[in-house]
Amino acid sequence: MKWFRRSLREEYDQRLLAELIEAKVKFESKRHMLEVSIEDTGELAAQVKQAEALYFFYLKEAKKRNVSLSTLR
Hints:
By secondary structure, the chain is mainly alpha-helical. It has helices at residues 2-36, 43-64, 69-72. Helix 1 runs antiparallel to helix 2. The model has no long low-confidence stretch (mean pLDDT 89).
């Protein structure tokens, strides 16, 4: 039964890292859009804050689970 938990944990760790990378890309692109935008309606700033919160949540979860890209390779 131990092998099952290990494989399941590895699968979820890979999914976590994939979502972490995706969240980072989205956060950086939205932050760049906010920097180059001329008009600031507040909606874009709210989207940046939301993307930032999601990215930092995934970072904190990866740190808590002691997962990094080098550990899965």
